[in-house]
Amino acid sequence: MSLDLTSERGVAVEAQQQFDWKDLAGLPYSKLDADAFSRVRVILMNGVESEALRFSHLLARASDPGLRRTLALVRRAEQHQQTLVNWLNPADQSPLETTIGYEQVAIEVTAHLAKHEPDPYLAQVYRFGLLEDFDHLYRYAALLDRLEGKDANNLLQGYTDVRPGRPTRDHHRHPDEDLARPYDRRSAHPLSKLNALTLVAGEYQTHDFYMHVGPLYADPIARQLYAEIASVEEQHVTQYESLADPAETWLERWLLHEATEVWNYWSCAQDETDTRLKAIFERFLDYELGHLAAAREAFERLEARDPFLVIPRALPDPIKFEGHRDFVRETLAREEDLRRDGTGFVPSAREPERSRALRSRLNAQGSPSEAVARGWAWRPGTELVAEPAALH
């Protein structure tokens, strides 16, 4: 089943301003009773909405008064949608537990996109970032045990492994190694464009969340760990946003942002098992179709082109929210040793000296990601101490 974007126009933007405060700050999901992928979908959609708002503000600054009004109407609805989605996170879910959820999003969504990406180079970029987020989960799971005495698997529910990936201490590299080769807007598969924007949205909100909560901790290792991984997430944002063709016009990008929101809400609605959350995703799918219709009208008016030269007439298959343990394990075994050299990938022995020098300076007084997991290994049921040599 697909979704035909040529005939679906959703709810008109003017009719979407129907929220009140109780609606926006409604009942959250249950931290322990909800399926882990309900949390994943809520976090993902908060990131997608956040990226839509950020982009809309930038576009408005370069737009005429007529387009600014349309963007303001759409943006008000988007902000309320983000509020309602983000407020689904429960108050008894600590920032560190939410962090575990963020990393599960990064692993499972990236794994799905990497498996289905039609461009081999883009798929390689996604697998590279995946192995870094996989290690972040391991380090934060150790911190969750250290600070709160909790088992990360109570949140992950066995869908995602808790084990070392490419060590976080090795993720720090020269900015020249963060840029990737962009796709060609004229020939790229529509799925490639939606994949890249989805990852920009997810990684951007992860970076911002870590920058917000990291300074709130008193524990010195926690403060340093959030600072270290936030730095890597900034690298990931740079990596994924550089995949977009710089020749895309601003209005092409608005179309792609709205199509990405439609695709993500449609995907969430397909898989969600909680009937209340499913109804929210379906409601916002209709709203996003209305936003896409507004973007199409603006594109036709201002660029006098067919919007379906930019976005697909029918959406690609939805994102499947499921565990990818075997795929991640196989990728880890095959590609852990890869490093970046410019826009390419090389064995660690051939990594440029500029990245080695930068990393050596950052890790000069030790690596917080190594310190937090030293002597720690996750085992089913509880935490156990293992010899560090057994971890790698």
Quick tags:
mainly alpha; 392 residues; single chain; two-stranded antiparallel ribbon; 13 helices; Ferritin-like_SF
Write a compact overview of the structure shown.
The protein is mainly α and about 400 residues long. The protein has helices at about 20-25, 35-60, 65-85, 95-115, 120-150, 155, 190-215, 220-240, 250-270, 275-305, 325-335, 355-360, 370-375; strands at about 340, 345, 375-380, 380-385. It is built from 13 helices and four strands.
- In DSSP terms (H or I, runs of 4 or more residues), the helix count works out at 13
Outline type: globular
Overall mean confidence score, pLDDT: 95
In angstroms, what separates the terminal alpha carbons?
Answer: 43 Å
Report helical residue fraction: 55-70%
List the strand order in the largest sheet: 1-2
- Major beta sheet, specifics? 2 strands, antiparallel
| Broad structural category | mainly alpha
Would you identify the regions where 5 or more consecutive residues have pLDDT less than 50?
A: 388-392
